[in-house]
Amino acid sequence: MKLKGIHHVSSLTADAQKNLDFYTRILGLRLVKKTVNQDNTQYYHLFYGDEKGNPGTELTFFEIPNLAVKHPGTNSISSISLRVDSDEALNYWRGRFTKLGVDHDSMTKRFGHAVLPFRDPEGHQMSLISDENNSGVSSGKPWSRGGVPEEFGITGLGPVKLTVRYLEPSVQMLTEVMGFRKTGEYETESNNIVHVFETGEGGNGSEIHIEQRKDIQEERQGKGSVHHVAFRVEDEDELYDWIEYLKKDGFKSSGFVDRFYFRSLYVNEPNGILFELATDGPGFNLDESSEHLGEQLSLPPFLEHRRVEIESRLKSLPSPL
């Protein structure tokens, strides 16, 4: 029962079309699945990733129209990162962001890696992180038709940062329950300490960074907020083991959830941040060929009988070429 790394990150958007345009046309990610929120089928759930939407590369967005602007704060997933192969790739992206008007900061170093912080149009806090000095969990392969040279393309998800009011309970869950290992720490520009933990084979594709902040209010989620982070488990058998393990350890989880493209469980860590454990498979090619991922509205079998109703409620969302 060892978590293999980060599986996906899910965030919130108020406008699926603008979100689609940014993540495919600006960041060059592939739309690997256009589906709906299984808990509220009136709205889209978009999945972006590498060429096949491999685990560890998936960035997803729930659309909630008219969603208010978030109020950043503690007890939140305060930022995420996306991997690229080299420091040279960051130079390419700095130029691309400047040319295309993407809000970004200067390049800097973070825990031994070059990073380029930026925001999407809804204020989603992100960084591109270089894998030049990285080892551990493998990255994916960039989408070759995303308008970005492959050698500079985004290869997957990097470290996820949590900001919490109480550090010790979150650390205890990560290390004593979930099997993460502490590998070090670094200081922010405001002289706060960020603690770094990894799982599986380690490295950028497995890391959680945690900063304690008692001087700010709790985040009020809105567009640009991160909803949850998911971690990789091998298969359903191991997922069931985790369900029993968490139950015996006193954690209240969702139990087994069938998302069709993967199986999951959900559990809140002690500061209230939502974690998910998700299986590596079956994958996104269950209902679409690898060549045509994301081109049509996909519905899992348990929603297929409602397709006419669901499609009638959705606004048109042309997929990128």
Describe the structure.
There is one protein chain. With 321 residues, the chain is of the alpha+beta class. The chain has one domain (6-313): 2,3-Dihydroxybiphenyl 1,2-Dioxygenase, domain 1. Helices cover 19% and strands 34% of the residues. The chain has six helices and 17 strands. The protein has helices at 16-26, 87-100, 167-177, 236-248, 301-304, 307-313, and strands at 6-13, 30-37, 40-49, 58-63, 76-84, 108-110, 113-119, 125-130, 156-157, 160-164, 181-187, 193-198, 208-212, 226-233, 257-258, 262-268, 274-282. The strands form two sheets. Strands 5, 6, 7, 8, 9, 10, 11, 12 and 13 form a nine-stranded mixed beta sheet that branches. The chain has an eight-stranded mixed beta sheet with strand order 2-3-4-1-14-17-16-15. Strand 3 (40-49) and strand 4 form a beta hairpin.
Overall structural class, as computed from helix and strand content, comes to: alpha+beta
The total count of helices amounts to 6
Question: Order of helices and strands, N to C?
Answer: EHEEEEHEEEEEHEEEEHEEEHH
Mean pLDDT over all positions? 97
Cα(first) to Cα(last) distance is 40 Å
Instruction: Sketch the major β-sheet.
Output: 9 strands, mixed
Overall helicity: 10-25%
- How many DSSP-defined strands? 17
CATH architectural group? Roll
CATH C-level: Alpha Beta
Number of domains: 1
Net shape = globular
> Please, what is the oligomeric state?
single chain
- Provide the CATH topology: 2,3-Dihydroxybiphenyl 1,2-Dioxygenase, domain 1
Low-confidence stretches: none
Keywords: Dioxygenase, Oxidoreductase
Domain VOC: 5-131, 156-280
GO molecular function, one term: dioxygenase activity
Pfam family, one: Glyoxalase
